[in-house]
């Protein structure tokens, strides 16, 4: 009689059990994620990737309209490239500035932004697509509301960090950030009929207050007041009511031309895309293909892989900002980083939501990707500030300071003279 052994059931491995003898905290991938330099390099890599994608797609999406308007397919791309260079230089300068310097700039930045925003109602102001939100200064045009976004972040972080022990009292949470500073910035933008930018500013303000630990009841009251205000702004504007009606019910393509052709572009792209430069909708079918609807051109030319890549990059940008918020002990750094995160992510959500039909067409650019000089320069400056926060984390600063010594030790193994043995 032969004895056969019954195999024992395979036991499930516990989640905290080491894999192949390596404790989870010592796994190479985990170690890289927990490196003090990971947030710093992640920010730089994500910003560079989004900027590169934006430059390539602006070149592709704007070429046809540029030929029709100027007879030069590269005119829009060259302008965007110039602003990208300016923005990168500004981001490098911002990344080297200390927290103390940023806090000292809070009030001058806010006053400067308010003055520039008020100038749009003078002869220097220019109407663009129904919004009076631009200034003509010699050969260039700037959008002061983009400066106002960064100014509101820096000023708000400075105020909330200073008053952090008093924020349990609603009057200290509101004055002077929400009123008068926030009300003035948002009010001047609304006077220029730019509801999309005003919504981004309100989301930025909400991010600042949330990161500072303001009471939830204040958010409920403020959210209700903001909803009533936005509803009133829509009801009194024929243009906004038309956009809302076409979003809620589009009976024929001529009623919602831009949103429908944005969906056509995404549908034509499918899984693999038509190929870089092969968009059909940019041939004067889709309005603003290089600006508000550049995400549709990405989907048409690069397919679902291109759109998912953009979404993943914005998710990684959110992760990097969140790591700074959770790791820092400086209240100014925490609140300012949360404000920049709320600004960029809310603007990206509004833009992408408008393109895919989840939101009415509001008219805000996709950060770092869409064409637009003021938006690109100020977004890069804001992210340069966040990079400076990551760079000045104690562990990251020590690691960066140690790099020259590591390089010198590596070079010391080579012989001093080429002929010596």
Walkthrough of the structure:
Strand 1 and strand 2 form a beta hairpin. It contains 16 helices and three strands. Residues 1-7, 9-21 and 416-421 have low confidence and may be disordered. With 421 residues, it is mostly helical. The protein has a domain at 99-365. Helix 6 runs parallel beside helix 15 (373-391).
Salient structural properties:
421 residues; mainly alpha; 16 helices; disordered C terminus
SS field, number of helical segments: 16
Coarse morphology: globular
Query: Which spans of ≥5 residues are poorly predicted at pLDDT below 50?
Result: 1-7, 9-21, 416-421
- Bin the helical content: 55-70%
The SSE order reads HHHHHEEEHHHHHHHHHHH
Mean pLDDT: 87
Structural class: mainly alpha
Euclidean distance between termini CA atoms: 75 Å
Strand content: under 5%
Please describe the biggest sheet, giving its number of strands, its sense, and whether it closes into a barrel.
Answer: 3 strands, antiparallel
Biggest β-sheet: strands ordered side by side in the sheet: 1-2-3
Cα gyration radius (Å): 25 Å
Based on DSSP secondary structure assignment, what is the total number of beta strands? Answer: 3
Function: Peptidoglycan polymerase that is essential for cell division.
Protein name: Probable peptidoglycan glycosyltransferase FtsW
Subcellular location: Cell membrane
EC number: 2.4.99.28
